[in-house]
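Researcher: Next sequence.
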Amino acid sequence: MYELLFWRYLDEIYLNNQEVYEALVEKQEVEGLATLQVEVIVNRINSVFSEWERVDENSWKNPKGKGAFQVIATPQSIKIDCYGTEGKTMNQLVSVMEEFKCPLYDPQVPERYDEMSE
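Model: Next structure:
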C-alpha cells in the first residue's frame, strides 16, 4: 500500500507537516486547517476515474489492469490508500486534489509538495 494525504492550510498558517499528518490519521481536528468540500472532492475523483469500477462509496479498482485505491476522508483531509496503483494513476489523484488547493503530503518520504516546501 502507498499512502497519499491531502489538506489545506488556512491563510498565513503553516504547521509541522508530520505532526499534522499524525493527527489527521488519528481523525483529530487540527486548528489551522481548512474544512474541505469532501463530497465535491469524492464526486470529482469519481468523475475522473469513471472508467474504473466503483467497489463501494469510497473505493475504486481498475477493471482493465492493476491498481485500486480507497478514499478516507475527514472534514479537513483526504487520505488515499493506493494498492498496486501505477504512478500515473497516483499523479492523476494528486492533480485532482490540486484543483482543490490541497497539495500532497507523502508520508513515505516524508515530504509535503507545496510552495512552502524547501
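Model: Helices lie at 17-25, 38-48, 87-99. The radius of gyration is 14 Å.
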